[in-house]
Design a protein that fits this description.
The complex is a heterodimer.
Chain A: H1 12-75, H2 77-86, E1 93-100, E2 103-110, H3 117-120, H4 129-217
Antiparallel strand pairs in A: 1-2
Helix pairs in contact in A: 1-2, 1-4
Chain B: E1 2-7, H1 9-17, E2 22-25, H2 29-41, E3 45-51, H3 52-65, E4 73-77, H4 90-99
Parallel strand pairs in B: 1-2, 1-3, 3-4
Helix pairs in contact in B: 2-3
The chains are: A mainly alpha, B alpha/beta.
Chain lengths: 218, 105
């Protein structure tokens, strides 16, 4: 049997209070269980999505590296580095949050992901087509990587929330509710016992009084 | 918010071409950890991109640094030598912790 709640008086008041608590715990337990199940469904949906996005990002990055190596082999590693330093910064991400079952997950939007040749900002006269190609491929890869960051962080946050919800459900199920039930049972038994005791007392008094009366009349 | 990259020379060069300005070349995972530590403190960094090869060595420390924080998001990508065999797959690890059983997806 589960532990009792400590320092509880076996009174009717207390019993009523406990009964409302039991009701509340049951309701909370049901709701949390539903939340947990919904979160898990959501988690698997996103998981599926994330696998696809990761594969896409990896492929896109692989292509980008091939383009980069080609650029490096035609222009030289240092020249490509120089070009990289000349490229204008255009990438900013806007972050907003979206709510999945009450979990705030980030949504990232990348500004200006595809740029034209002129917008990149390096000199076209002393670079070649390979560099343009590499830059383009890396822009695409970057967009994919940003998307990947978004879904992976959603997964992380969701899994944390699932963990917390699961712990709450288990705590209610295995500790709080048995303890409440046990205490209710204990109070009931104490009250019943007291009633029996009283009943017995009354009987006792009645018989002794009857005996006295019988003696008096005799 | 800005995008930042902490990686080896080639990866950094590539992402610089894509217009990432907060780019840091690092030689060792320890270096990378220092840089990432620094970037986490900055307020305006939205994403830190790093390579699998680097992050696999310092995953624990980075996770500790990110405890209770939403930004920056740390994302790992393969470097030019391709994907690596990770000690623990972080996504599978999350599934295991969340659901309680290991599921291969």
């Amino acid at each position: 049997m589960a532990e009792l709640i400590e320092s509880v008086n076996p009174t009717r008041m207390e019993l009523l209070k406990l009964k409302t608590k039991v009701k509340l715990a049951k309701k909370g337990h049901r709701l949390l269980k539903e939340k947990r199940d919904a979160l898990i469904v959501e988690f698997f949906n996103i998981l599926e999505e994330a696998r696809g996005i990761r594969r896409r990002a990896e492929r896109s990055l692989g292509d980008a590296f091939i383009a980069l190596i080609l650029a490096q082999s035609t222009l030289g590693v240092l020249k490509v580095k120089e070009v990289g330093l000349a490229v204008k910064e255009t990438h900013e991400v806007n972050t907003v949050t979206r709510s999945i079952m009450g979990v705030r997950v980030p949504v990232l939007e990348i500004e200006n992901e595809k740029r034209t040749l002129m917008e990149r900002g390096y000199s076209l006269s002393d670079t070649n087509y390979m560099v343009d190609e590499a830059a383009k491929k890396f822009e695409e890869a970057l967009a994919a990587v940003v998307e990947l960051a978004e879904v992976e962080s959603s997964i992380k946050l969701l899994s944390q929330e699932i963990k917390v919800t699961k712990r709450r459900v288990n705590a209610l199920e295995n500790i709080v509710m048995p303890r409440l039930d046990a205490t209710v049972k204990y109070i009931r038994m104490r009250l019943d016992e007291m009633e029996r005791e009283n009943f017995f007392k009354l009987k006792r008094i009645k018989t002794s009084q009857e005996r006295k009366e019988a003696e008096a009349t005799a | 918010m800005k995008i930042s990259i902490v990686a080896d020379f080639d990866t950094v060069t590539g992402f610089r071409l894509a217009g990432v300005r907060e780019a840091f070349v690092v030689d060792s995972p320890e270096d990378a950890l220092e840089k990432i530590k620094h970037l986490i403190k900055k307020e305006d960094i939205g994403i830190v991109i790093t390579t699998e090869r680097i992050l696999d060595k310092i995953r624990q420390q980075v996770a500790e640094l990110m405890e209770g924080k939403n930004f920056p998001l740390i994302v790992e990508v393969p470097d030019k030598d391709g994907k690596i065999e990770k000690k623990v797959d972080p996504i599978n690890e999350l599934i295991k912790r969340a659901i309680g059983v290991e599921i291969k997806v």
